[in-house]
UniProtKB/TrEMBL annotation:
<dbReference type="InterPro" id="IPR016181">
    <property type="entry name" value="Acyl_CoA_acyltransferase"/>
</dbReference>
<feature type="domain" description="N-acetyltransferase">
    <location>
        <begin position="54"/>
        <end position="185"/>
    </location>
</feature>
<dbReference type="Pfam" id="PF00583">
    <property type="entry name" value="Acetyltransf_1"/>
</dbReference>
<dbReference type="InterPro" id="IPR000182">
    <property type="entry name" value="GNAT_dom"/>
</dbReference>
<protein>
    <submittedName>
        <fullName>GNAT family N-acetyltransferase</fullName>
    </submittedName>
</protein>
Length: 187
């Protein structure tokens, strides 16, 4: 007899709740991205400072034992933030300043969205995405994702994300990334 899938619930996290679950969230991030274990220690301080940014919000998927299954968070993108400046430079270089302004003047940065590898392919990522973006006042949402065929790519295309910048290499990471965006609200 096979066990029934565990129940799952979705919750919004306060900054304090996010801090309390940081280790769990980073474990999911490292596993989902297939990063080396030391990555969590490098990312922890950055994730904690993101909580302080304007418009920050986070959502989580929890199993019936209250364990984290998935995590998503983001905030209002603004000049001076590392990701914003990297993307602005890339879009400006390839498409011009007008295109950069069109995408980057009023957007929410979907900073992280990850589902524990054993729980992927069950709609959790889309549920997290929709819950995170519900009620975001910005005109657009932007994100970056490694290039390549993945469940994440299928999700982003399914919910209407378009190419903003392709084959982009962020400072400090040799992999090519795509920057994707779409208007808000989601349909």
């Amino acid at each position: 007899m096979t066990a029934a899938p565990s129940a799952q619930r979705y919750v919004r996290l306060s900054g304090e709740e996010f801090r309390m679950r940081l280790r769990e969230a980073l474990d999911i991030y490292v596993a989902a991205m297939n990063y080396p274990p030391g990555t969590a220690e490098q990312r922890a301080p950055m994730w904690l400072t993101h909580v302080l940014r304007e418009g920050w919000r986070a959502v989580a998927a929890l199993d019936d034992d209250d364990r984290l299954v998935g995590i998503a968070y983001g905030y209002r993108g603004m000049p001076g933030q590392w990701w914003h400046e990297q993307v602005r430079r890339g879009v400006t270089d390839r498409e011009g300043e007008q295109t950069a302004h069109a995408w980057l003047d009023d957007y929410f940065e979907l900073t992280e969205i990850h589902v524990r590898p054993g729980g992927q392919g069950r709609g959790t990522g889309e549920d997290l995405l929709r819950m995170l973006l519900d009620g975001v006042p910005d005109g657009r949402v932007l994100l970056s994702t490694p290039e390549g065929d993945s469940r994440a790519w299928k999700l982003y295309r399914r919910v209407g994300f378009d190419d903003v910048l392709r084959q982009y290499r962020f400072a400090g990471d040799p992999r090519p990334f795509a920057v994707l965006g779409r208007a808000l609200p989601l349909d």
